[in-house]
Amino acid sequence: MQTTLIILKPDAVQRGLMGRILSRFEDKGLQIVGCKMIQIPQEMAERHYSDHKGKPFYDGLVSFMTSSPVLVLAIRGVGAIAICRKMMGATFGSNAEGGTIRGDFGVSNSFNLIHGSDSPEAASKEMELFFGAGEVLDWERAGEKWVYDLSGDEPE
Ligand code: IDP
Ligand code: MG
How high does pLDDT run on average in the chain? Predict the structure, then answer.
C-alpha cells in the first residue's frame, strides 16, 4: 500500500470543486486517510516547491499556493502514487487529457487545481511536511474486500 499527498489547490477550493474532485478518488476505490483544510504558510510553500526554485514560475507558484485555503489529502491504495498522477492528468490544463481532473476542470497552465506526489520519495517527504502525528488515520474500510481481491498474500 502507498500513501500519497494530494493538495486541492486554491483555485479548486475557490471554484467549489473540492467535492467533485474528492469524489473521483473515492469512486476509484482509493481510501482517504487524511484530510484537512489549511492556508499554506509562505515557508511551507517554499519548501514544498524547493525543486522549482529559480524557475520563472516559482515566485508566482508560491504566491498562488499561499493566496487562499487548500484541502490537503492523504490518499492510500496499491500503487496510489501513479494512479493519482494519472487521474490528475498532464501539468497544463490547456493540454491535459479529457477524463483527467486537470483536463476536465481547467484551462490554465498555472492554476491547475491539484498537486500530487510524483514518487515514493516525494510522497514520504511531502506527507511529513503537511501532516503531523495523529493526523493520518489507519482506519479499516468495511467494503475493502470488494475493492481489492484479498484472497492472496497481497491485495490485488
Ligand atoms: P506537476 O504539478 O504536474 O508535478 P511540476 O512541473 O512539478 O508539475 O510543476 C509544479 C507546479 O508549478 C505545476 O503544478 C503548476 O502549478 C506550476 N507550473 C509548472 N510549470 C509552469 C509554467 O510553465 N508556468 C506556470 N506555472 C507552472
Ligand atoms: Mg511536480
Answer: 98
pLDDT tens digits for range 92-113? 999 999 999 999 999 999 999 9
User: 40-62 b/e with 16+ CB inside 10 Å = b?
Assistant: beeebbbebbeeeeeeeeeeebb
Tens digits of residue pLDDT in 24-63? 999 999 999 999 999 999 999 999 999 999 999 999 999 9
- Alpha helices of 10-65 — where are they, by DSSP H? 10-14, 18-28, 42-48, 58-65
CB 63 within 8 A of CB 9: no
| Active-site residue, selected from the candidate residues 62, 96, 115, 116 | 115
Query: Residue 102 belongs to what H/E stretch?
Result: helix 101-105
Torsion from C-alpha of 85, 63, 45, 29, nearest 10 degrees: -30
Q: Where do the domains of the chain lie, and which CATH numbers do they carry?
A: 2-132 (3.30.70.141)
Confidence band for 131, pLDDT divided at 50, 70 and 90: very high
115: annotated active-site residue: yes
Report d(CA 87, CA 68) in Å as an integer.
Answer: 24
**Which ligand 1 atom is at minimum distance from the Cα of 91?**
3
